[in-house]
């Protein structure tokens, strides 16, 4: 039974980080390529992953282990292996570069060195969350996902309003 719970824990963790890291890169792609139906589909999956993260927060919140310690207890292998694997996967991730660049590009530029520094900054934040956040890991994911859902809806409404105003003003010419 512990292994099954651990698998659910990992699935939820991956889902939380997929929504947190991948969302910034995936959101415009879904919206621009598939229109409003793509945006709605993306928000539905984001809402499901957020719900999973919230539920997992309740379960894991009762544990007194850090993420790596919990992994070590259940799997009986050094938890640092999981952290190293996560860092390698995230470092190679397209979305990690996009998230870092979207925040740091005005300061670092978009050249190779700027991309490298932004990836390292994002990875450092993720490793801190994975290694030392205890039960707050899923809370961080859930809050981030809920904020993103709110901001996405706000952006969708705003862009619709802007396009309507532009249409009305173009009719007046």
Automatic annotation (TrEMBL):
Membrane-spanning parts = 7-28, 34-54, 74-96, 116-133, 140-160
Tell me the superkingdom of the source: Archaea
Query: Which keywords label this protein?
Result: Membrane, Transmembrane, Transmembrane helix
Does this UniProt record's set of keywords contain ATP-binding? no
In its UniProt entry, what is this protein called?
Transporter
């Amino acid at each position: 039974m512990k292994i099954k719970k651990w698998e659910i824990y990992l699935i939820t963790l991956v889902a939380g980080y997929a929504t947190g890291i991948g969302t910034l890169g995936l959101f415009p792609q879904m919206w621009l390529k598939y229109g409003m139906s793509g945006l709605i589909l993306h928000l539905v999956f984001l809402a499901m992953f957020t719900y999973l993260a919230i539920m997992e927060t309740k379960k894991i919140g009762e544990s007194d282990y850090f993420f790596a310690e919990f992994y070590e207890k259940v799997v009986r292998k050094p938890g640092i292996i999981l952290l190293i694997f996560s860092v390698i996967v995230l470092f190679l991730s397209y979305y990690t570069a996009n998230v870092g660049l979207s925040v740091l590009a005005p300061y670092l530029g978009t050249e190779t060195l700027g991309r490298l520094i932004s990836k390292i900054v994002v990875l450092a934040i993720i490793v801190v969350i994975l290694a030392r956040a205890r039960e707050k890991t899923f809370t961080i994911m859930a809050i981030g996902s809920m904020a993103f859902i709110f901001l996405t809806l706000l952006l969708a409404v705003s862009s619709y309003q802007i396009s309507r105003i532009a249409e009305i003003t173009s009719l007046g010419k």
